[in-house]
Amino acid sequence: MQVIYAYTRREAIEDGVLVDVTAVAKDVGFRDHTVITQALHQALQDFPRGSTERYDRRLHDTLEMAVLSIMRETDVRTDRVSFPVRLLNSSYQRERHQLMAVCGPDDDGNPCMTIGFPEDF
Fold first, then answer.
1. Residue 48: which domain range?
2. CA 73 to CA 67: how far, in whole Å?
3. Where are the alpha helices (DSSP H) in the chain?
């Protein structure tokens, strides 16, 4: 089969479809290149005006939950793990969201992690 067009991971990062969070991810235990989807990036930025929440703290906590969920996963053959997070919404209520961490190859065939909402995949 002939490939007519391919949209690379690198292009998705340049376009903002994926957001590179590798530096923070390495701080919480990821070893490989890590990105989050634009939808998750937006959700982490969306908190009530005047709240003490900060994007960098929310990102760190979300990535930490991903690491913990991956470490608890017993099926070593899976490439994806589902995990919950609670984020403060504009009504100051903690809203539960289901996220996924998916391991796959990057543009060069190296392992990488993508984290986002299930509908992002």
1. 9-120
2. 10
3. 9-15, 22-28, 38-45, 55-72
Distance CA(13)–CA(35), nearest Å, equals 8
- Domain assignment present for residue 2? The answer is no
Burial grade of 85 (CB within 10 A; 0-12, 13-18, 19 or more) = buried
Q: What is the mean pLDDT of the chain?
A: 92
Is 101 within the bounds of a domain? yes
Asked if 113 and 24 touch (Cβ cutoff 8 Å), the reply is: no
The answer to whether residue 3 scores a pLDDT higher than 90 is no
Judge whether 63 and 52 are in contact, CB under 8 Å: no
Residue 91: pLDDT band with limits 50, 70, 90: confident
Domains in the chain, number: 1
The answer to whether position 91 is within a domain reads yes
Q: What number is the average pLDDT over the span 33-37?
A: 98
Question: For position 76, what pLDDT does the model report?
Answer: 79
